[in-house]
Fold this sequence. Notes:
The complex is a heterodimer. Chain A is elongated and about 135 Å long. Chain A has 13 helices and 4 strands. Chain A starts with 6 loop residues before the first strand and ends in an 8-residue tail after the last helix. Chain A has a 4-stranded antiparallel beta sheet with strand order 2-3-1-4. In chain A, α3 crosses α4 and α11 crosses α12. Chain A folds into 3 domains: 185 residues, no CATH class; 55 residues, no CATH class; 91 residues, Cytochrome c-like domain (Cytochrome Bc1 Complex, Chain D, domain 2, Orthogonal Bundle), CATH 1.10.760. Chain A is of the alpha+beta class. In chain B, α2 packs across α16. Chain B is an all-alpha fold. The two termini of chain B are 35 Å apart. Classes of the chains: A alpha+beta, B mainly alpha. The interface between A and B is medium-sized, with 15 and 12 residues.
Amino acid sequence: MSNNKNLYGVTALFDNADEIINAAREVAKAGYKNFDVNTPYPVHGMDRAMGLKRSMVGFVTTFLGFSGTAFILLFAFWAMSIDYPMVIGGKPFFSFPAFIPVTFETTILLGGVSTVIGLLALFASLPSNNHPLHDTDYMKAVSADKYGIVIEADDTNFDEIEVTGFLQKLGGKKIHSINKPVKENYPVLQPRFITFLIVVALLVSALTYITLNKVVYIEPFNWMTEQDKVTAQEKSVFYADAFGMRKPVEGTVAKGYLPYPYKGQLNPVETLPNPLLPTKEVLELGKKKYLAFCSPCHGTFADGDSHLRGQFPNPPTLHSQRGRDFSDGMIYHIMVNGQNIMPSYESQTTSEERWAIVHYIRALQRAKNAKLTDLEEVKKEPVVNAE
Amino acid sequence: MLNNESGYIKKDLPASVVKLGTVLFIFGLILGIVGFVIEPVRASYSYLVAFMFLVSLGIGSLFLVALEYIAGADWSTPFRRISEFLASSLPILIVLAIPLILSLHSLFHWSHTEVINEDPILKGKSPYLNSTFFIIRVIVVFGLWSFFYYLLTKNSRKQDTSGDQKLTKKNIVISGIFIPLFAITISVSAIDWLMSLEPHWFSTIFGVYYFSGSVWASLAAITLIVILLRDKGYLSSRLNNDHYYSLGTLLFTFTCFWGYIAFSQYMLIWYANLPEENFWFLMRWSNGWEYFSVILILAHFIIPFGALLSYPAKTNPRRLKFMSVWILVMHYFDLYWLAMPNLNNNGNGYIFSWVDFVFPIGVVGLLILIFNMNAKKYNLIPVRDPKLQKGLDFTLH
């Protein structure tokens, strides 16, 4: 074995497809394993002539594709049912038919992309993409109109003189020995190159920014921001009164709000009954709201001793005979309408809260005017919630 | 008759095939008539399924013949006659449709004028869905198919004696005219015969659905017959793994295509969930039909997909034969699933009946007889087709 260590292989050219098929068959028959055929187009029957086994790429792609299936199904399950469950069209969170298209696509994508990446990583020896056959007369010929065969020097049966003679015997023309190229180092991380990259990146970003924002500003998605409608507090040309914001239709009742029938009457002939039972929850709600809204003027215990130290005229005590004779509905009526200089508290409190305040005032009144018999009541069972 | 180019010697099919076909056909015919007498409505539905199966094989095969011409394919030329023979059922379809047209009232809800007058939706569809126009469409569609079958096969047979290469060019032009017409007519007949069984329901992809299934079944029938005949020495022994691989790939392709179309039809209706569309699938997901639907998904798509995925599976004649029979059965099952739930749509669900098993037997018998009749008269190989040699030399990779 007097092989040149730098030798890559021996190439030969043939004139037509039949010759190259024959040559490939003969080379395979002679026991060579590391040889390849280059033709300007795919020649049918070549795999069989070269004695190639079926490629395993299909299995790799299938496996990677199905791992894509598994990944996307798990991801869809996690995203749509665990991390951010969203009701879409009344379907269950994990509704399989909706995920079939994306599963199908991810299967294809992962199978295809990972096969390509795998092939590049295994066979292209990146980042260098050089190959000994590049830039040779042989490669120029087989990319045009010739059919070439190359027997590589790392084959166990390889002997330069023997192979040359063998290819000559097969009818090969232009038999050449190809040497491996001198390994070149491309100094990618030169300071000048890096600086150049940074300058180019900055320049491109700046130019893009200036062009798109200053020179030709195109508002993206303006159909969302500029709609053909009257926005809040804008003048309307459509309505005669020119108000863009419209009042609700006469008699509209807001959700969760019951209109009070005796509103504005000074001395109502009849009042509403209290719809709430004086349960513990109701009394606690009443206490909370009384302390917030009523106690600043009426005092913590409704004695008429304002917290405001005379900045306003003090209201009378609620424990007078008149106050105690008010019906529940009358106290409620005063809270809604106001009385004398007391304003209406309709907007600060809900109907339920006002009725709870009434119960709390009743409790205060009873506590201030307690009788001995009340002690008997205390011993009794507490009022159970109406529910 | 000896031909120097292909070495093909014409032989008659064995007598046992003819016997088998005759027995099956007569068995199916007699029991079918009994079925029509005992359970006329059930029998007309069963007969419709069998009829549509025959339509599938006939028009699917003729489509594959036209496809070969228009695509310039040569690998399928050595067994193009198989497709032509299968398509020869097309001219008799119009005769076979007579029992269906006679039982139009038990099959099609829309054929009752008194029902239509009370139903505003059906009234709106009545310019298309009425008995007269239906029969006109049937005659036009089957007439067109028979006409193109006649043109394509006449030229192909003439070439056997004259060897005139212009006939291939003529057939390419005929195929070019036929394929767009085929796309329209197969949709029309799928909508007429199968979709209008439930006249309130509509699906614009239905024609494609039927097309995918019918080409799938035709390919399976061709694959089965090619392998059987080649093994018995009726076709050229030069048909090899690469031919089988191509047939297997097409079978696999149409498995996926059917799955794609079937799912597209399902998903849009499932997602929108509109009552005017979804009841059709709900009908097939209740009262026993849900088992049929699950079997359809598994055996019509998932099992053939797995069984035909790998290269060895597509080149193994035994596997291909088995899968071809499987596919033919599944296409019949698919048509059954399309038509039969409409029979008992008053909520009775699936009811077993022996009548359903009679007609497929008759259809198989009929197909064998038709095939044999053609095989007696014509060569099994287009002996002087200009693409024949290339087709026999066909290799992949």
